[in-house]
Design goal:
With 338 residues, the protein is an alpha+beta fold. 17% of the residues lie in helices and 33% in strands.
Amino acid sequence: MTNKIDTRFPFTPFPIGWYWVEFSENIKKGKLYSKKWMGRETVFWRGDDGEVCLAKAICPHLGANLAPERGGKLRDGCLVCPFHGFAYNSKGQCVNTPTGPLSTSVQLETYPIFETGGVIFAYWHPAQTEPDWCVPELDPRDWSRFMYTAQEIRTHPQETSENGVDITHLPYVHGYSEVESLGAIHVDGRLLQNKFKLTRQIGPTANLSIKLNVRATVSMWGVGFSMIEPVMESAGLYIRQLALCTPIDEEKVNFVMAIQMKDIEKPNALFPGLGLMPKRILNALLLRLFFKVYLTDISQDFEIWENKKYLTYPRLSTSESAIIQFRRYCEQFYAVPD
Ligand code: FES
Ligand SMILES: [Fe+2]
């Protein structure tokens, strides 16, 4: 079945906002990368000044493709075009050519970058205006490193983000119980927050499982960035999950699932005897376990996301008004000034 996104959704596939580009550890100095990002062929690299540059892979001189697969190269931290050898620094400025520096300014089309806690984001705006907001800083102190994976899905970032306010699907799709909203969703400019609690069993059978009582906060900054913070207070367990949805083209998104946690404070409250394990091993095991749980849970949504139709006028019950509020919040990411 082919689902052209422009017939599936009554809005652009590329809403304004900050979108995941890559994890910092995957960008090696001296190496040039390419990827399709927001419907554009792009290149990215880390310059000698340590700054990451994400740019449209088209040389402004005469249009050559700058991707490494097409001959683009890095030299002294600058991107060198395969056609006439113009060299661009990490700000995208042409700083040299084989016949010496240019008298006029030649500039790559670059995207504002924000690198935080080992994750790199770039700002997308169709009119290329500078951002007046940002996704939050991911302070790495007290947190483990991120475990992550990415999946290509045929959907739209607004659809994946809508899950964060749709708590009635949680028992039905994910099998959670005792799901309860902890108040109205909160919208403050670019930020939307939703709080709820739930119970989730993990383990092979009902007798051999751990029952987790979770309070979770979902925070969104735009449609491409959701952070879910599940807390299990009784065990002193704090988790941070990122659900980062970046359009690749008009039909597909890259959906990144990342997780990190703080060292567990009261492991015996999670499972008797767990506190006897060496702390480092225990925390590494728990991170793996919760990563697996996170992937299992979210992958249950994929099939639905890929095949659902976006309904402009859904038949919602009164308890689902958060979905309407979410959609109203989303409108700002489509508002392009004249
Ligand atoms: S097209 Fe890139 S230097 Fe000429
Ligand atoms: Fe879900």
